[in-house]
Design goal:
There is one protein chain. This protein has helices at 27-39, 54-59, 61-67, 81-89, 97-100, 105-113, 148-158, 162-183, 194-203, 241-261, 276-282, 297-301, 319-327, 355-367, 369-386, 389-400, and strands at residues 2-3, 12-16, 45-51, 70-74, 120-124, 139-143, 188-191, 209-211, 231-235, 266-270, 288-292, 306-309, 331-333, 350-351. It is α/β, with parallel strands linked by helices. The protein is globular. 46% of the residues are buried.
Length: 402
Amino acid sequence: MKSETSDAKLPRLLFVSPRFLFPADTGGQIRSGQILRHLNNRRFDITLISPADAQQEKVHADDLHLVCNKFIRYRPPQRGLSADVKRALSLLHPLPASVFSDNSAELRSILSELQLEHQVVIYDFIHSAVNYVPQDSARTILFTHNVEQNIYRRNAQLNGAPWKRMIWRSQWKKMARFENDALGRFYRILTVSELDAEFFRRTHPDADIKTIPTGVDVDYFKYAPPNDSKTIFFVGSMDYSANIDGVRWFLQDVWPMVRERHADALVKIIGRYPPPALVDRFGRDDRVTFTGWVKDVYQESKDGSVNIVPLRIGSGTRIKMYESLAMGIPIVSTTIGAEGLPVVHEQHFLKADDAGEFADAIDSLLRDADVRARLSRNGRELVEKKFTWEKVADAFADHCEF
């Protein structure tokens, strides 16, 4: 546990995260961490609870100091062979497997002991709701980054193997039951897109549902005019099923058409833990690189000429798309990839949903400097005006004050 001095006049906010926020290499970690960083000691006195071990807390002590005045850790989920066996057995449990793994009696005990100490309690991600503890005086808010049941539904529809579709359908039904039940426990629901909010309003018409925008660090992700390097890149955690599906589809169905037209083009897949089977299959192409985990996404992607978002599964919003808009790098995305974001086809990005369209869109960007320049300027202008983290954090805080 870590404690720091804080302004006693600020309202006290407890933030319950099912994931340790550092290193911030997923969209959810980035979003939650940036919001807390811009609220701590300015709008709230923040206590953060998340799974972590002593080494993680020590290594990221400076990061924690920026996002909270007090950090409380509990034991992380078990890893290794026994954890894999437990996860496999969890497929038989009424809870979806990803939620079952976050079930923590230790966390519930900590939350019970903290009764009356905070005015607002935020549960981050739907998974944290499995550890929900009613509060006597605090208002409880669920901060959703996705509609999880939609992700499961799309996996069930797109997975090729019948046995995989069967598992995803089962998990989809479990997640829909859990998600729909969990939303009814909270005083307020926060979503990251109006599309997600509309979905939840259909299932929970009486719920208090608010939306906050997605943000980007416009000072860190510096703007530069688009280049003609012919480097096509993707950014996203490669241990996430939606990203694996999208990258596999791109490399299998789209990339051959692009390479036929642009023999000097390169593809860079930036993201942690790419599946060995995917690397073995497509990494043999000397024009395709899987970077694995990188310390600095900006440095790894800033010289790219086209950012691809080939997602066919997903929900919420893609922070990585905003980062490319901030850098001025033109984007080609599917409809689902751009879902929930206030971006316009041919004004901020190019939309393409089948392989031929996607290849044509990349081809047009690689050939036409004027199109690249227009999308680049418009994208940077959009995020500068509306989507800095300061503005996102203020919108978040407004919905947390009662």
